[in-house]
Amino acid sequence: MRKRMVIALGGNAIVGTDGTACSQKISIRKTMNALAKLIKKGHQLVITHGNGPQVGNLLLQMVNGCTSKNPVMPLDTIGAMTEGAIGYWMQQELNAVLHDAQVEKTAAAIVTQTLVSASDPAFKEPSKPIGPFYSKEEVTKQTGKHSEYLFKEDAGRGYRRVVPSPKPVTIIEYPVVKLMLENQMIPIAAGGGGIPVIEKNGQLKGIEGVIDKDFSAAKLAENISADELIILTSVDHVYLNFNKPEQKMLTKVSVQKLKQYIKEGQFAPGSMLPKIEATIDFVERTGKSALITSLKNVELLEDDPIGTVITR
Questions:
Q1: Fewest CB atoms less than 10 Å from the CB: which of 57, 104, 117, 226?
Q2: Is 205 a catalytic residue?
Q3: 3-59 confidence digits (pLDDT tens)
Q4: pLDDT at 183 exceeding the cut of 70
Q5: pLDDT in tens, 22-37
Q6: Which residue of the set 12, 33, 57, 95 is catalytic?
Q7: Which listed residue (105, 213, 219, 288) is catalytic?
Q8: Cα separation values, 42 from 35, 218, 300, Å
Q9: Is 275 noted as a catalytic residue in this protein?
């Protein structure tokens, strides 16, 4: 059965061996080859992606090279810059793969805005680490240059800048995504969670923050009435007691069970937990199913899917 799918790519689907554009494009080409197999089978795909490493690298370049005449850009603008760059790479590589496979469809990236609430508690308690690690002395220098920056100690490894990570309310450009799907195109949207914006006096304004890309993928899937949300990560399944002798693989699990496991502290906050919470949101709001798996299992989705299926 042909489906409308939102596929959220993790960082491992983008980051190359050395961080260069060429290396990242090679990694993306491999990812697009896998996704093209679903497109060839007639499925409608919307592709979302992370941008964490790219935002960190660009921010570091700006901070190290900033002057009064060449200032650091605000975080929403940096998000837009990296979303545009990765989207550009993805549309180029996917279109090349589709051309070679003689599939007459076109992929196009959308610089996507994500509406958040100005009263989201995340703005009062910034928690999302971005950029490099700093020593105490380096933090003092950074705050001397950028008094608005907030730094927190990160697991004994040094200090990192932290920013708000608000929850998405809606994806502003979702009607464009739907229109593209209706015209047999492949949208690449909500990259890096989308650019966080708030509504003020009837207008959209960018705001400092980073939205979790899995939550935005779930919101986009809801907005466009997707049949399934697929989150691709580095492991084949969700596990209980991960990396412990009593590790247990989950193949099919209900939302109710997942909520119980969250209370037990089964999922790492900076890793699997947001993926679990995003799938819960999608399943509860739509009644549809979600899947967490790895990229290598994508082509098996129709035959014998490997991964963790989340249902109501």
A1: 104
A2: no
A3: 999 999 976 668 777 778 898 899 899 899 999 999 999 999 999 998 877 887 888
A4: yes
A5: 988 998 998 999 999 9
A6: 12
A7: 213
A8: 12, 22, 15
A9: yes
List of domains in the chain: 4-311 (3.40.1160.10)
128 noted as active-site residue: yes
Q: Provide the b/e sequence for 179-211 (b: ≥16 CB within 10 Å).
A: ebbeeeebbbbbbbbbbbbbeeeeeeebbbbbb
Among 11, 84, 158, 206, the active-site one is 11
- Is residue 213 annotated as a catalytic residue, yes or no? yes
Q: Would you state the structure tokens that stand for residue 302, as one six-digit string?
A: 């129709």
Please report how the helices 75-100 and 21-40 are oriented relative to each other, as an axis angle in degrees rounded to 10.
60
Quick: pLDDT tens for 257-275.
999 999 999 998 878 999 9
Q: What share of the chain is helix, strand, coil (3-state, %, to 5)?
A: 40, 25, 35
Distance CA 30, CA 13 (A): 8
pLDDT over threshold 80, residue 305: no
